[in-house]
Specification:
This protein is an alpha+beta fold and 362 residues long. The protein has helices at residues 2-19, 68-82, 85-109, 115-154, 289-301, 304-310, 318-343, and strands at 25-37, 43-48, 55-56, 61-65, 157-159, 164-169, 176-177, 183-198, 210-215, 223-230, 240-247, 259-264. The strands form 2 sheets. The protein has a 6-stranded antiparallel beta barrel with strand order 1-8-11-10-9-12. The chain is flat, with a radius of gyration of 51 Å. The termini are far apart.
């Protein structure tokens, strides 16, 4: 039967690939599980309680074999398990033996009986205790035999392994049953969708992916299914692989056995997540550029070379010329830094200027 279903699925796939859209593939909607239910025991079929199309639940009795002998054995075992007369008799005999042993010991202290009488009383007391234990064990065995008879009677009933719908009924009342199935039960919630996909699409379909199943019935034109199994082995003869999907059917409205077409949704690669970086705009300097120039000018004037140049010393004085050159170089460096600060202002600007050394020029 499975071979016929796969052959039919191949025909549907080829037909749909020829007549439908390029992304549509042929598929077949099947029951999730199908079981040919039979009996564990051999016997004559006494009653079948279901017909084709009936809805059954898990554990429901589908058929029953004749079980007169099993019921009689169950009644006998139940009677034995509840019988406690033998146990009560053993307990009473044990109590009597214990009392006799106590009296014998008292008489031995008074030298009215011999040691042999005491030994005999102790032996009788021990035998009485063992009989109590034996009666207790017999009662436990009777209870276990009752459970065994009950299990044998349960084997005469044929029960449904899961909830579903009866597809076929093979036997009628009065027939002898050995290994043949009695009924066929199918679970239709959820349904199973089988599709044969070309090998070129291997890797583009993954478990958990959603798919759109389309049928020819107007009430079930578009159904949402989920991929549950993707074969990892490609058939070399047909260059295809199989994909299984799960189709929910809570009210059993969707019939099984429908030919369909399936379209798989494309999987989009997950966008790369970059670490969040908090960008803080640069803060403006608390000191304005003009004020900074003024401070630099005052600082430059405080240098020794500036004082020498300010007093208008003679040009032939090489010390004054050297100080002037150093001051000019410091002003050029300050201008470059101010240009950089005007492009990208920094939170704080610290300008450090070393005091120029007066070098005599020869």
């Amino acid at each position: 039967m499975k071979t016929k279903a796969m052959s039919l699925l191949m025909v549907v796939t080829l037909g749909c690939a020829h007549n439908s859209h390029a992304e549509s593939l042929g598929c077949l909607i099947e029951p999730d599980r199908v079981a040919d239910v039979g009996s564990q025991a051999v016997g004559v079929l006494e009653q079948i309680k279901v017909e084709r199309g009936d809805v059954v639940i898990a554990g429901q009795v589908l058929a029953r074999l004749s079980a007169q002998v099993e019921r009689a054995s169950l009644n006998v075992a139940q009677t034995k398990s509840t019988a406690d007369a033998e146990y009560k008799q053993a307990v009473a005999a044990s109590v009597l033996a214990q009392r006799k042993l106590e009296r014998t010991r008292d008489l031995l202290k008074k030298d009215f009986v011999s040691d042999q009488a005491l030994d005999q009383a102790e032996a009788e007391a021990q035998v009485a205790e063992q009989r109590v234990a034996q009666a207790r064990e017999s009662q436990r065995v009777a209870v276990r035999e009752f459970h065994l008879s009950s299990a044998q009677l349960e084997q005469r009933d044929v029960r449904s392994p899961f909830a579903g719908i009866v597809m076929e009924r093979y036997r009628t009342e009065g027939e002898r049953v050995e290994r043949e199935p009695l009924v066929r039960v199918a679970r239709v919630d959820p349904l199973r969708v089988e599709a044969i996909v070309p090998a070129a699409q291997f890797g583009s379909i993954q478990a958990g992916q959603m798919a759109l199943v389309k049928t020819d019935l107007p009430n079930f034109a578009g159904l949402n299914a989920q991929v549950t199994l993707v074969d990892r082995v490609i058939d070399p003869a047909s260059n295809t692989f199989r994909v299984r999907m799960m189709l929910p059917n809570p009210e059993r409205r969707i019939p099984a056995g429908l030919r369909c077409r399936v379209e798989f949704t494309s999987i989009k690669p997950a966008a790369a997540t970059l670490p969040s970086v908090k960008v803080t705009p640069p803060t403006k300097s608390t000191v304005a550029i003009s004020e900074l120039k003024t401070q630099m000018s005052l600082l430059a004037q405080s240098l020794p070379g500036a004082r020498v140049f300010e007093k208008l010393q003679p040009a032939k004085d090489r010390v004054a010329v050297k100080s002037y050159l150093l001051l000019r170089q410091a002003r050029l460096n300050m201008t470059k830094r101010l240009t950089m600060l005007s492009v990208t202002p920094a939170p704080q600007v610290v300008v450090a200027m070393a005091e120029p050394r007066i070098v005599s020029m020869r």
